[in-house]
TrEMBL record:
N6-carboxylysine PTM sites in chain numbering: K152
Classification via PANTHER family: COLLAPSIN RESPONSE MEDIATOR PROTEIN, HYDRANTOINASE/DIHYDROPYRIMIDINASE FAMILY MEMBER
Pfam families associated with the record: Amidohydro_1
Stretch forming the signal peptide: none
Protein name listed in UniProt: Dihydropyrimidinase
Family assignment from sequence similarity: Belongs to the metallo-dependent hydrolases superfamily. Hydantoinase/dihydropyrimidinase family.
Region span, Disordered: 455-474
Amino acid sequence: MDYDVAIRGGTVVTASDTVRADVGIRGGRIVAVADVIDGARQIIDASGLLVLPGGIDSHVHIAQASGPGIVMADDFASGTASAAAGGNTTIMPFAMQQRGRGLRECVEEYRELAVGKCLIDTSFHLVISDPTPTVLGQELPALVKAGYTSFKVFMTYDDLVLNDRQLLEVFAVARREQALVMVHCEGYDSIKYLTERLEAEGKTAPYYHGPSRPQIVEREAAHRAISHAELLDVPMMIVHVSGREAMEQIRWAQQRGLPVYAETCPQYITLTEDDMKGLNMDMTGAKYVCSPPPRDKESQAAIWEGLQQGVFHTFSSDHCPFRYEATDGKLNPRGRTSFRWVPNGIPGVETRLPILFSEGVSKGRISLQQFVALSSTNHAKMYGLYPRKGSIAPGFDADIVLWDAKRRETITQSKLHHGSDYTPWEGFEVVGWPVMTMAKGKIVAENGKIIGQPGDGAILERGRSPYATRNAQH
Ligand code: DUC
Ligand code: ZN
Ligand code: ZN
């Protein structure tokens, strides 16, 4: 027996090709892609199915401290199970520095929550919220060298916002250490001003989350971040872009040759601000509250434009799961009623791939190659996991999803495995569904059933992102 597993009869799709081929796996890695593969202990029949690189979701939040009285709905076991059921084989959550604390201690504490719990491979970004001289001069450089090669900074939120001076200092460290800096672009002062004004007018329903942070606020912050990055000559990734305004800033930067990269998410191609109205402006609108907020149909069209034209490199879920009907969730946030207190985030790690495939490939908006690039390959390349993850070729981890391109499904909470008690896509119909997820040669999920065990997934260190180097070839 030459192989542990042979996947036979399927159509292998990568970011560059679609070919009819079998895949041979040994020791958790792909060792052959060929017309016919014989001699395996386990044969998996993939006829009629697409054989895709497992999804890599480079933007999720799991078991993250979310402030007093608020608890995230997924721990690493449920979050990775949900990811696996949705066709993913790697996720990248954020190890967040809490203000007033050292970065290293926060990372160690967070890592402990994940060890032995993950069903699929997991690798952490950092969040820098308190860029003290010790953090910037010692802790961050040491952590980058240890394999935490990307970090996020925020331009809003009381407990996370960095001012312009701090952003510049952090960007300078990213440049020096060749780490990739990810930026949450929404302007703090404008949001605070608008929020207070709306509340004074009695406009406190979840719907007003949208008007409290309109596109202009995101566009201004995107432009400011781009300017800072240009000033210091450092590459940058702008995460969770929601609409035309910010997208056009990014395209403008890219057309000027700046190394500005961008991510978008399922909520920005499928939801609108009207979803936050709920039933007659009630609290059910809180189920859709995330930041930046979903916009309008025209913004959705702009995001598709960006996806088609390559303005966006990655399509992530920004899975940030809270419960709705719970004292620690969205319905009654901290016992208060204003939208200001509703935890920002929606669950989506399990539905990201079906939504992109259905709205993108099945509806003819993007090619299979674009789908694979946006959902897997570009994430691996962007964050230093390539050529171990993100494609189907000899030498890559055997991280594979078998995909039924014809299967019709209706997304509904009872089919999902996340810790939230709802999905924002309840009743949403898709064409295309993951039928089997294999991580490092082992089946972890099949037809909605979780087969993997906590501990099957490793915590990965990463190499430097080739995108973090100015003028790098990638
Ligand atoms: N930013 C995120 O990346 N996720 C959830 C909320 C937020 O502000
Ligand atoms: Zn963010
Ligand atoms: Zn996020």
